[in-house]
Design brief:
Oligomer: single chain
Radius of gyration: 19 Å
Distance between the termini: 37 Å
Helix content: 25-40%
Number of strands: 10
Length: 336
């Protein structure tokens, strides 16, 4: 992880991200970091590459992997990458800290997250109200899973000091944390969910894989995965951002018009090796509603996210947040 001093120093400077440059063949190079490339919630990034849509726009998009979204955010603020495929809520949190970033394409309209509890303690934990004194797994401290976990605790009558968040990332590290009883419950996504449910090691406490599930848990539409960037970078690279939007919007439309099986056929086999392709497809089919069909921000989404963060986040609570500066629909609306 980058040092906090480095991140804060560079983040305070406008346009600190490395400028895109001409790659071989006259294409434009863009560096994007994804908060877990093999997670189904961030499937749009790799799928866009697999479908050839970046290349069709004259872009050489270099996707890098970072299991915790908060670390991807830090890398972007430090200028190591040009943008992040991660949760929209970071843009609100960052504005509260005096930094200006914005979502330029909204990929999800639900978090795609599930709170799992170890099977041996599931009977003792019927809701987040039973979390007092418990160790709860999140991808990283300051990550979106950490945000949502804290909100669910506070919303159910606890304080953030009643719980202990443990950074366990996702995939095998999350599974190992459950197996070794380092965490009692934890928030994760597919395909990790299917791996733990299939082995009988965990049970579902809260399911936010669909818009309806997210509304029940969080009080409204919760836009999650997005392509977000520093506003200064967006303003100084509008042609490149438009090309990125063109590619991602095309992918969102492709997802909306193809089956889970057809989508899985386009993904690298390593992405479903841990659970098998059949279970991967079944999981994707069950949560396919979480993807936006057009890349647009749901109109009621930003306010829900602000309400959630205002419940516990000292960077947001009591601060004046201008939601209109945390996202833009300009590029999606102009997408070819």
């Amino acid at each position: 992880m980058l040092g906090a001093v480095l991140a804060l120093t560079l983040a305070g400077c406008g346009g600190t991200a490395k400028p895109t440059g001409a790659a071989s063949g006259g294409t434009t190079t863009v560096k994007l970091m994804v908060g877990g490339l093999n997670k189904q919630i961030y499937l749009s990034a790799k799928l866009t590459e697999q479908l050839g849509y970046f290349k069709a726009q004259g872009l050489d998009v270099q996707l890098s992997d970072e299991p915790a979204g908060v670390d991807a955010e830090t890398a972007m603020l430090a200028g190591q990458v040009d943008g992040v495929v991660g949760f929209y809520d970071h843009n609100i949190d960052l504005q509260g800290k005096g930094k200006q970033t914005e979502s330029v394409v909204q990929l999800q309209q639900a978090p795609g997250e599930v709170e799992l509890c170890r099977s041996d303690v599931a009977d003792q934990i019927r809701s987040p109200a039973d979390w007092k004194g418990r160790k709860l797994g999140v991808t990283g401290l300051g990550s979106s899973t950490n945000f949502l976990t804290k909100y669910l605790a506070v919303h159910n009558g606890l304080s953030v000091t009643d719980i202990t968040s443990v950074a366990v990332e996702a995939g095998q590290t999350f599974i190992a944390a459950m197996q070794h009883k380092q965490i009692d419950c934890g928030m994760t996504t597919e395909p990790t969910i299917s791996a733990l449910l299939g082995s009988g090691q965990a049970k579902v406490l809260i399911d936010m894989r669909t818009p309806d599930g997210a509304k029940a848990a969080l009080g409204g539409t919760y836009p999650a995965a997005s392509l977000y960037m520093q506003t200064a970078w967006v303003n100084s690279h509008q042609d490149t951002v438009q090309k990125l939007a063109n590619a991602f919007v095309r992918t969102q439309r492709w997802i909306a018009t193809h089956s889970a099986s057809e989508i899985a056929d386009r993904m690298p086999p390593a992405y479903y090796a841990g659970i098998g392709k059949d279970r991967y497809v079944k999981a994707l089919e069950a949560e396919k509603q979480m993807y936006t069909p057009d890349g647009l921000m749901p109109p009621d989404g930003p306010q829900t996210v602000l309400n959630v963060l205002s419940a516990f986040d000292p960077s947001v609570k009591g601060h004046s947040i201008d939601l209109s500066k945390t996202y833009t629909t300009q590029f999606v609306q102009n997408a070819a």
